[in-house]
Amino acid sequence: MLARHLKLLPVAGVLLAAHAGFADVACPVEAPRRESVEYDAVWRTDAYSADYLMGNIQAAVMDDEGSLYLLDIQQQEVFRFSSNGEYLGSIVHQGEGPGEISQVWSMAWWSPGSLVLPQAFPPRVVRVAVDGTPQDALRVLLDPEDESPVSATEFAACGDYAVVGGSIFTFGGENPQIQKWLGVVGRDGSLRHKLDERSTTVSTDPLKQKYNEFEQFWRWDRWAVSQNGRLFIAPEREGYVIEEYDLDGQLKSTWSRPVEARERTKEELEQMRNSNTFVFNGQKAETEYTLADHEPQISDLYLFDDELWVRLDKDPKSESFARMAVHTLDGELLSERDLNVPHDSKNDIVLLLDGDHVAVIENGVAAQQSQFAAFGGEVDEELNAEAIEVVLYRVAE
Fold it and tell me: How far apart are CA 103 and CA 272, in angstroms?
């Protein structure tokens, strides 16, 4: 019976097997073309400005007019710059009042006119206008019968809805747990659909930890959503597989590409151990590691200009910032692009803003480690300890 409803549609090197509203997309091993993308600097901040002092910038977003917002997670402050680099003021500060933040590590833009800041504790999603005027905060409720809001750490808007993710910590007893969740909420914070959740047990002794890379992986960790509610995830740790869902959690299509994951070097395995350490009250925990032999093929997903950008594992010797496989939203593989953003890979943090703009946080790694050191973490003495500067880049014409 299935064969009667099955039809094969060749589309520019892509094979679509469609039936009952579902599509399997088989992508080729080799991309139709390879591209090298170059960037030009548009403007940069002043590390010694009398108007602002930046501590640890870890997130950046652009609004509909091209203004850039920078989140300082050390000072819990948001700095705003115009599209041409003019400083427009510090619009969000640390505190517990309306429009103020505490324990915020990420932010997003929700049209029209809302900068969104998910706060871990106390759990709420702070919203402010472009000038910092407080808007109603969201209380995300995963259970309609439970009025207790949950903390959110991930947020991406899609029209009148948003995909939101976070963690719930359950301490006490013999089996303390971390529950990760991902769901869809409306502008009032009410739950439209819980996409998935996963619980893992954590150690009862903070100075004895286990880091198991296979147990850490969750199929909903890497995702991106379009403005019209098409949600894409990378559900396999090593395979090149993309799944598309609607906002009610219905699987709409699966894309696959028959390529092999790259085996990790000894140096990469050692770096994994060094970058996943646990420190409690200034003491480094004894950690047992279970690491994979192969690097994940897909490290992240982005949705820009009606294209899905799949960030790939790249040659460690490559000088490019990232390699992207670019698909249409129907799965067609268009190209692979090397993004050649001027930066120091050891000292700088690079943040993709959209398909044309990138923010480089110069000396951001040292600032990150400096804040970590305040809690007893180790600092790489070779890192550049100079003041942070942020540079906005745009694709060269």
Answer: 26
Show the DSSP H helices in 6-105 as ranges. Answer: none
Q: For residue 278, give both structure tokens.
A: 């646990």
pLDDT 10s digits, 279-290: 877 788 999 999
Task: Give the mean model confidence (pLDDT) for residues 177-182.
Answer: 91
Contact 261, 238 (CB under 8 A): yes
pLDDT at 171: 73
pTM listed for this prediction: 0.90
pLDDT in tens, 292-309: 999 999 999 999 989 999
3-state SS, 190-256, equals CEEEEEEEEEEECCCCCCEEEEEHHHHCCCCCCEEECCCCCEEECCCCCCEEEEEECCCCCEEEEEE
Half-sphere exposure of 71 (CA within 13 A, CB side): 22
| Number of CB atoms found within 10 A of residue 255's CB | 25
DSSP secondary-structure letter at 65? T
Q: Please report, for the chain, how many H helices and E strands are present, in that order.
A: 4, 31
Say which residue the tokens 């999603």 belong to.
125
A 10 A CB-CB count for 83 gives: 15
Phi first, then psi: give them for residue 256, nearest 5 degrees: -145, 155
- Give the tokens for residue 380: 């790489």
> Could you tell me the pLDDT band of residue 276, with boundaries at 50, 70 and 90?
confident
